[in-house]
């Protein structure tokens, strides 16, 4: 009897857990799994829109071959934006970390400042950002005032990094607006570090610079990695991403193939980031040991 009761209790707990995750599973299957599978199916077909509905004509990997080997449109949009992402991600992480450390101080009105830094995440949708850029907002005014753009042209010359750097500077303020979530994550990470560690460092005579490199930065490493993954994904879905606009064509099969290629590129980039983080983390542990 006791065994049957234990089995019944175990089954009951499993059922309770299943009921709790059932809404998520239902939403995942309807709103994510099915569209992903359907887009993968369309990427191997030529889709025609007829009065009676959609007609599918199988054409194999034709669209994939055309995008990767027979067209330069995808690479013309991807490579410059990829260069922008490489520049934007470190800027956002460094800015977020510094602001989080500042907001963690015992300052008057720090809760108000935290809300101010997070408000753009709530209000700045893709449409609003586009309107800001169309109105000439989001750039650094002193670039035109001091003709810094001309110096950049002379310094970068015909380098492939010239256009991404100038594009980034023209949207610099908007890029920093995308730091709200990262600031909150860094702020939560900073509050996990006990004050006793800083008090011990001050007693030993450590300078603020040494405290940052020896205590704060190592303790924030997991949160840096989390923000790195989040920022990379966020930047690859940035409203001004030209690849996203390229995907939005009328050819459903071609667009689906392009979306899957872009998705796989993002996955590969994230895997490279994870491997680099694991390598750096492992070398730091070996150095400490």
UniProtKB/TrEMBL annotation:
<feature type="transmembrane region" description="Helical">
    <location>
        <begin position="211"/>
        <end position="233"/>
    </location>
</feature>
<keyword id="KW-0472">Membrane</keyword>
<keyword id="KW-0812">Transmembrane</keyword>
<feature type="transmembrane region" description="Helical">
    <location>
        <begin position="85"/>
        <end position="104"/>
    </location>
</feature>
<keyword id="KW-0813">Transport</keyword>
<keyword id="KW-0762">Sugar transport</keyword>
<comment type="similarity">
    <text>Belongs to the binding-protein-dependent transport system permease family.</text>
</comment>
<feature type="transmembrane region" description="Helical">
    <location>
        <begin position="168"/>
        <end position="190"/>
    </location>
</feature>
<feature type="transmembrane region" description="Helical">
    <location>
        <begin position="111"/>
        <end position="130"/>
    </location>
</feature>
<dbReference type="InterPro" id="IPR000515">
    <property type="entry name" value="MetI-like"/>
</dbReference>
<dbReference type="InterPro" id="IPR035906">
    <property type="entry name" value="MetI-like_sf"/>
</dbReference>
<protein>
    <submittedName>
        <fullName>ABC-type sugar transport system permease subunit</fullName>
    </submittedName>
</protein>
<keyword id="KW-1133">Transmembrane helix</keyword>
<dbReference type="InterPro" id="IPR050809">
    <property type="entry name" value="UgpAE/MalFG_permease"/>
</dbReference>
<keyword id="KW-1003">Cell membrane</keyword>
<feature type="transmembrane region" description="Helical">
    <location>
        <begin position="21"/>
        <end position="44"/>
    </location>
</feature>
<dbReference type="Pfam" id="PF00528">
    <property type="entry name" value="BPD_transp_1"/>
</dbReference>
<feature type="transmembrane region" description="Helical">
    <location>
        <begin position="253"/>
        <end position="278"/>
    </location>
</feature>
<feature type="domain" description="ABC transmembrane type-1">
    <location>
        <begin position="78"/>
        <end position="280"/>
    </location>
</feature>
């Amino acid at each position: 009897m006791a065994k049957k009761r234990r089995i019944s209790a175990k089954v009951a707990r499993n059922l309770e857990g299943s009921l709790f995750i059932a809404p998520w599973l239902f939403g995942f299957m309807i709103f994510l799994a099915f569209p992903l599978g359907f887009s993968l199916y369309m990427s191997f077909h030529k889709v025609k829109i007829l009065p009676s509905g959609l007609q599918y004509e199988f054409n194999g990997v034709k669209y994939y071959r055309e995008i990767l080997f027979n067209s330069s449109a995808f690479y013309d949009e991807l490579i410059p934006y990829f260069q922008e992402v490489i520049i934007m991600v470190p800027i956002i992480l460094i800015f977020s970390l510094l602001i989080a450390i500042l907001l963690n101080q015992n300052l008057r009105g720090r809760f108000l400042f935290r809300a101010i830094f997070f408000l753009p995440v709530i209000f700045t949708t893709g449409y609003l950002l586009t309107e800001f850029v169309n109105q000439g907002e989001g750039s650094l005014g002193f670039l035109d005032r001091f003709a810094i753009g001309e110096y950049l042209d002379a310094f970068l010359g015909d380098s492939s990094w010239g256009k991404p750097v100038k594009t980034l500077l023209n949207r610099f303020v908007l890029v920093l607006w995308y730091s709200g979530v990262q600031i909150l994550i860094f702020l939560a990470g900073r509050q996990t570090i006990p004050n006793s560690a800083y008090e011990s460092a001050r007693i030993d005579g450590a300078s603020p610079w040494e405290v940052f490199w020896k205590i704060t930065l190592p303790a924030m490493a997991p949160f840096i990695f989390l923000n790195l993954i989040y920022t990379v994904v966020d930047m690859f879905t940035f409203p001004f991403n030209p690849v996203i606009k390229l995907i939005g064509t009328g050819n459903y099969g071609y667009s689906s193939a392009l979306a899957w290629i872009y998705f796989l590129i993002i996955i590969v980039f994230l895997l490279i980031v994870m491997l680099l983080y694991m390598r750096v983390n492992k070398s730091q542990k070996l150095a400490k040991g």
